[in-house]
Amino acid sequence: MINIKKYISLSALLLGASSLVNAEVIPVYQIDDAPGTYVQTTLTHDIYRYSADSQLNDLVVVDQQGNKLPYRITAPSVQSSEQSQQTNVRFFPVAVGAAPETLLALSSASIRLDANEISVSVVKSDKQELQNESVPTDFFVVDLSDLKTRADNLVVLWPVSEKHQYLEVEVSGTNDMTNWTPITQSTLVQLQKDGEKLTRNKIALNLSEKEYAYLKLKFTRGSEGLQLTQAAIENTDKIANATVVDTWQVAGVLAEKQESALYLINGGKKTPVAAWEFERDDIAPVAKISLNLGTIMYGDNIKVFSRNTEKQAWQLLHQGIWFNAQVGSDWQQSDAINIYSNSDVYWRVELNELVRTTLNPTLVFHRQPQTLQFIANNSAPYKIAIDDQAAPNNQQTSTQIFSQLVSGKDLQWGQVAFTELKPNINSFARHGMQVSWKTLLFWGILLLAVAVLVGVAVRLMGQMKSKA
After folding, report:
1. By three-state DSSP, how is residue 466 classified?
2. Half-sphere exposure of 415 (CA within 13 A, CB side)
3. Is residue 127 a contact partner of residue 148, using CB atoms and an 8 Å limit?
4. What mean pLDDT is predicted for residues 415-438?
5. What is the pTM of this model?
6. What mean pLDDT do residues 285-301 have?
7. What pLDDT is recorded for position 125?
8. What is the bridge-based pairing of β-strands 38-43 and 414-415?
9. Which of 56, 127, 174, 204 is the most buried (most CB within 10 A)?
10. What are phi and psi of 463, to 5 degrees?
11. Rounded to 5 degrees, what are φ and ψ at 72?
12. Going by C-beta distance under 8 Å and a sequence separation of 6 or more, which residues neighbour residue 367?
């Protein structure tokens, strides 16, 4: 008769072995103390270096005894920081050699009789003698005399042309059209290629209300044949505290294949490019990306690809023009490229093949940091940790419980900072290349148990044959 005790012992052995491989809750950050019951802290992309889930379902918050605390992850409460308003203002070109009294003719008075009412109004008109196209323009005058607000910035527009891509301008102010006071100097830029633009057309003034009635714009570069089409005063008011954008850079390496990955996607012609590939060590969902080209001028094609694993095919995310230009003493780039919630690890950037030996670009990722809120229990220190055995919908469940606990309460959140514990990256499921001793023990015991079962089965077969 088969010895049942052997099977019971074997089952107990397997259960014991499986309990050994239950993943540990690995702390990543520590909060030493909390100012109250309701605590919040800011999570950056760094937490995604440890997490194996782009939704952070493996994140947990534990107290000193290891008890899991209710928490939720939310977007920052403040989304907008400033609001801008533009007011169009009059402007006119002044010909070379124009006398001050000519400028004073900018305004003329007129008298109007309406029935029994007499009114005097100032009619401002562009004087033809100031716009004689046969005489070169010396400078432009911007009329602020009717402006009843401060003037933060002056915004100017002009037709796009190769001759007027870069403009250098000196700005002065006056109240009498005779004595001019220097205000600032600025460089403006307007680049265009294949329908895409890089425009930097704002001049910082920072003038108080009625400080100057007129501005002089003296262009020292790009003035020949220049025509302005619009001028406006822009004022910006802060309406809330700004949310700090979470940005980080990843260096790239020159790709092995210097033909466009579009060949693999479309099966078309192999086009030579300058290609770099990037690998990031996190899976944070990113909202935007940009390119840091340093101090190298560039205004040409760009293609951006990504994929989650090295074996996958490249997926085209963006194709267009990227500008990197010096504007005054600063370097300006195209606006960041919108990438909707992308967690891919591998990235590829393709530029014009002529810059292959001159550029060493870095890829810049942009996202909004998240806010982690949890309910403290007077059992500090608290740890923000990764639990490889957490349920796939752990965060949703925790958020629901959290919402029920705080429903109807007037909450005062205490903002805290944490200390980075810097655990071994190989201890986490997504990075783990090393096999732990518990895993080895488990599989060793499992193989031994299988061998014992096979041995028992062989013995039973032998006994049955002998009895037969």
Report:
1. helix
2. 6
3. no
4. 77
5. 0.75
6. 96
7. 47
8. parallel
9. 56
10. -65, -40
11. -150, 155
12. 45, 245, 246, 247, 284, 285, 286, 287, 288
Side chain identity, residue 180: W
Which two tokens mark 189?
């830029």
13 falls in which pLDDT band (50, 70, 90)?
very low
63-120 residue pLDDT tens: 999 999 999 999 876 555 667 889 999 998 988 877 766 666 654 433 333 444 434 3
Residue 459, H or E segment: helix 437-467
- The answer to whether the peptide bond before residue 381 is cis (omega within 30 degrees of 0) is yes
- End-to-end alpha carbon distance in the chain: 15
Angle between helices 4-20 and 437-467 (to 10 degrees): 160
C-alpha to C-alpha distance for 384 and 27, rounded to whole angstroms: 6
| pLDDT, tens digit (0-9, with 9 covering 90-100), for 428-450 | 877 764 444 455 566 677 777 77
Would you state the structure tokens that stand for residue 7, as one six-digit string? 């099977």
CB 373 within 8 A of CB 39: yes
Q: Taking the CA atoms of 269, 272, 274 and 275 in sequence, report the sign of the dihedral they define.
A: positive
Residues 252, 349: contact at Cβ < 8 Å? yes
Quick check: helix, strand or coil at residue 147?
A: coil
Planar angle of CA 58, 63, 68, nearest 5 degrees: 40
Tell me whether strands 202-207 and 196-200 are parallel, antiparallel or unpaired: unpaired
